[in-house]
Amino acid sequence: MKPIECACMSGKFLNTTEECFPILDSLQQNCPVIKNILLPNVNSLTKLQEFLTSNGRELHIPIIIHACQDGILGQYSSPFHHFCYENKLPNKQLTQRYLGELQENWFDGDAFNRKKQSDRFVSRFMELKFAEWLISNNYELLDLEAYGGEFDVSAKKIDTLFDFEVKYIPQSFDDFGLAYSAWKSPKKSAVASMSVYATLDYLFLRIHNSSAQLQKSTNKKISVVITYDYAFRYKRYFEEKWIDWKKVTLSGSNGVCSDGDCLKVLNLFFKDKDEVELRNDNSTTGISTKKLIAEKRIQESLVDLDEILIFKTLNSGFNIDLAQRILLK
Asked: What are the CB-based long-range contacts (under 8 Å, 24+) for 290-295?
């Protein structure tokens, strides 16, 4: 991949967020990505400053500020340079909808609403970061959803065509709630973290979702899962060989998960309008029925897929590294 020559590629660790603003102010004039894509409005920096000095910002720091303060702004901006910018104008292939989703506009609402919006923004960033990873691993990029493509990423390696659906699994709302409660009331007992069993079920759900989106592909179908906290949440599943990919069993099937987390994840398998009655049936019989149906759907999804790639995030989430490769065919 051709090295990027831009002022945003250099940086050093800064002691305070306030030190970021003169740097970003300069880059708004000198970096086309920051000027045209990440901070395109005259008042963009002012809005960031107002948010950071407000009493309601709580645990949130804008991602561009985080990257700037850590001295790794180049790692953050590089996929936007590669895929969203060309000839000093936003890439002509980039759809307007996608362009709008590449700007941090998640500063309104309470802490949990901001997290939801921020996670959606980061998921878009991760799609582009994965596309970078493909190029660095000798794939030829053919299309992106960002360009109006049917799938998140389509690529070619030698004579083989691939379609990829990328799912980002951020910090869970339960884990965020744990940190939020500790920050809000340090002397009070924290809320419980999401159970390890429900975390595994949620991984299966996201793989199932990606397989469904790849149904129309006639190429190799690859599910890509990028995890925010791989070491804490997912590493043990693979090291201790919890998963039988030939016969996936939801963790709640044997009664090991009784705290409600597994049920929340289970109900996410039933989102169609004609499944409302089944989704709302949380009787013992209803739960057993839903588990059997969900497990069958997962297995059918795995049959349709060729491969699963599990990534972990590095450098405060601004880079990714392949953690697990599961060959299904």
From this structure: 290/266, 291/250, 291/252, 291/253, 291/266, 293/269, 294/250, 294/266, 294/269, 294/270, 295/248, 295/249, 295/250, 295/253
